[in-house]
Design brief:
- InterPro entries: ATPase_NBD (IPR043129), ROK (IPR000600), WH-like_DNA-bd_sf (IPR036388), WH_DNA-bd_sf (IPR036390).
- This is DNA-binding transcriptional dual regulator, repressor of N-acetylglucosamine.
- Belongs to the ROK (NagC/XylR) family.
- It is a single chain.
- This protein has about 400 residues and is α/β, with parallel strands linked by helices.
- About 40% of the residues lie in helices and about 20% in strands.
- The protein is built from 13 helices and 15 strands.
- α1 packs across α3, α2 crosses α3 and α9 packs across α10.
- It is globular.
- The relative contact order is 0.12.
- Bound molecules: zinc ion.
- Zinc ion binds next to loops.
């Protein structure tokens, strides 16, 4: 991208201000002198930037008693009130809307079932639900809405804020971020849910200590979010890491993608339920009943030694391990995190996954690899929280808040 000289200066200012804000956020409390040292920016610039951040209410001064006694030193710290944002997950069957403060803490949330009729337009429903949520939960005198994030499955162009393709809700080329900004007059961020969740693990979860990680999500399908050098790995086509469609069994069941034997046909929740039901029908002994069968019940049965549940989950883990080995060979991550209800049988599944990865992945990539459960198993709004965090720390959202104050 080519900037004009003036635009360039503005952009550099934005990046520098963001790095100052990031340092204050990381250090919790820091003096202007230390800020200048750590940021390697001139003390005069620090004075100017911190004044701007303070005027916008994003940081405040606190007195910190010097260890040598005497006059308390003045430190800077990030301000949380009154900034809040919405994080929504537009799922296949449910919509979750959550209210978070600028630090990411959840204040309240709300969940509603989505109409299963794909001909009913989900976008007006989403906008109406957000409107209702705002009037029920936000006090405009005390709270200041700074952003709205929406994550969903499907193909999403983060840069342009467009839902490119979301077959479950019959959505194609919907400029959702633009619609949200027009309706609610705040910046809006949208992304694929699993990709955004992998960023949440990096910022707040189990991947905070690494630069390269992979989140594998086992749900109705099997998906992945890849973090490479601290950033979501993506490309021009916006769609990468379709681990669910790695062919694991060439003679396997047909997949909705048109192929056969994809990982998703064996290792997704839907596929696991189908396998167990089929085996019960064939007369295999188990404590499980085919009625109201859930992944939770299967994991409990497996944990209690039910042979059928154990065997099915071991096979699933082995095939997940084979697919993970391919990802490991391609990306050599420091961590692979697994999200999904099957994690309830972790004592059974992790040893099998690790064993299979050891057998199938490149020997030199395995010794330092950690395979573990993801932190955010049941907190869908954390995906959107990560998107807002990214916009704040990289400067665009920070810039919006500062200039909104100027206006
Ligand atoms: Zn497939």
């Amino acid at each position: 991208m080519k900037h004009s000289p003036v635009a360039n200066i503005e952009f550099i200012k934005q990046v520098n201000t963001a790095s100052v804000y990031r340092l204050i956020d990381e250090q919790k409390q820091i003096s202007r002198v230390d800020l200048a040292k750590l940021s390697e920016l001139a003390p005069a610039s620090i004075t100017k930037m911190t004044r701007q951040l303070m005027a916008a209410g994003l940081i405040k001064e606190v007195a910190q008693q010097a260890s040598t006694g005497g006059r308390p030193a003045i430190s800077l710290t990030c301000e949380i009130d009154p900034f809040i944002f919405l994080s929504c997950k537009l799922g296949r069957n449910n919509l979750t809307i959550a209210l978070h403060d600028i630090a990411g803490t959840k204040l309240t949330d709300y969940r509603v079932a989505l109409d299963s009729d794909p001909n009913n337009d989900v976008v007006p429903f989403l906008l109406a639900q957000i409107t209702d949520f705002i009037s029920a939960n936000i006090n405009p005198d005390k709270q200041h809405l700074i952003a709205i994030a929406v994550t969903s499955p499907g193909l999403i162009d983060r840069e342009s804020g467009t839902i490119v393709y979301l077959p479950k809700h019959n959505l194609k080329d919907i400029p959702l971020a633009k619609l949200l900004t027009e309706e609610f007059n705040v910046p809006a961020y949208i992304a694929n849910h699993t990709q955004a969740l992998s960023l949440a693990e990096l910022y707040f979860g189990a991947a905070q200590d690494c630069q390269d990680s992979v989140l594998l999500s086992v749900h109705d399908g099997v998906g992945s979010g890849i973090i490479n050098n601290g950033k979501i790995f993506t490309n021009y086509n916006n769609q990468v890491g379709e681990i669910g469609h790695i062919r694991i069994d060439p003679l396997g069941l047909p997949c909705h993608c048109g192929s056969h034997g994809c990982l998703e046909t064996i290792a997704s929740n839907e596929a696991i339920l189908k396998q167990i039901k089929g085996l019960i029908k064939q007369g295999h002994e188990t404590c499980l009943s085919p009625e109201n069968l859930t992944i939770e019940a299967i994991c409990t049965a497996a944990n209690n030694g039910d042979e059928l549940a154990v065997q099915v989950l071991l096979r699933v883990s082995k095939l997940l391990g084979q697919a993970i080995a391919i990802i490991v060979n391609l990306f050599n991550p420091q961590k692979v995190l697994i999200k999904g209800e099957i994690v309830a049988a972790k004592a059974l599944i992790f040893p099998m996954i690790e064993h299979t990865v050891q057998q199938h992945a490149l020997g030199s990539f395995v010794p330092n690899l950690v395979i573990n459960e993801a932190k955010f198993q049941n907190e869908p709004s954390m995906a959107g929280v990560a998107l807002v965090r990214k916009a704040l720390l990289e400067g665009s959202l920070l810039n919006y808040i500062i200039h909104e104050h100027d206006a």
